Amino acid sequence: MTTKNHGARHVAIIMDGNGRWAKKRLLPRVAGHKAGVEAVRNIVRAAGDMGIEAMTLYAFSSENWKRPEDEVNDLMGLMKRFILSDLDEFAANDVKLKVIGNWRALASDVVALIENALERTSGNKRTTLAVALNYGAQDELVRAAQAAAATGEISEAAIAAHLDTADMPPLDLLIRTSGEVRLSNFLLWQSAYAELYFTDILWPDFKPADLQAALDHFARRDRRYGGL
Ligand code: FPP
Fold it and tell me: What residues flank ligand 1, with Cβ below 6 Å?
């Protein structure tokens, strides 16, 4: 497979459909999330190979706390295991980990794990993997506006400079799997000029070739940023 990023530097994904993937197989929902982690691994590797500089993945939204306690615990457990088990791979593949959202409000063991992983990968350069954890875009915008106001300047540039993604390239492409067509409070500011790509594929079934298909679709779009 020839892979091309077509100039896309930053790709974000709403990884939806783990529950339905499990249900189709008569498996518990956690099996869908586990398969989802495997898809994350494959897609992050592929993104690096494709020369994509940054990936932002919606792993746990500020609204996901409404899920049953067991499922929240399963998701947090998977996240911890993913960070622990994949740290060596991040080092080998030059992946810099970043976490966006209100992650400092998570349980202290998760926070400690994240802090360690951020530190250990901070020198890596090839791909930035930003994981959105306890993330909501409206919350991010309030925090950015507050931080901008504290400097005495509320402007587009000042708010953009205080977003969680401020040090990342502009968002080029936002993908949502599983057939839902909405943004669900994800990267609302950043998606102002991003191309949106919706696919019926359930997240655990999303393969590097599907990422390539989304990028090929992106390449065919004519991005005018409001101009002619
Ligand atoms: C949506 O599927 C998916 C989530 C709420 C969690 C996404 C998490 C992962 C893929 C695993 C951990 C992530 C990382 C970065 C290691 P759903 O449960 O809403 O599916 P459904 O709509 O079919 O029920």
Answer: 15-20, 33, 36-37, 40, 57, 59, 64, 75, 78-79, 82, 131, 178, 203
List the beta strands (DSSP E) in 46-145. 54-61, 95-100, 127-135
Distances (CA, A) of 34 to 38, 79, 114, 223: 7, 10, 19, 36
Give the domain ranges of the chain: 10-219
Residue pair 165/1 in contact (Cβ under 8 Å)? The answer is: no
Token pair 């599907």 is found at 210
Q: Is the dihedral of CA 210, 87, 137, 189 positive or negative?
A: negative
Burial (Cβ within 10 Å: 0-12, 13-18, ≥19) of residue 64:
middle
CB 12 within 8 A of CB 186: yes
Q: What is the pLDDT of residues 93-126, one digit of tens each?
A: 999 999 999 999 999 999 999 999 999 999 999 9
CATH 3.40.1180.10 at 10-219, yes or no:
yes
- pTM for the whole structure: 0.96
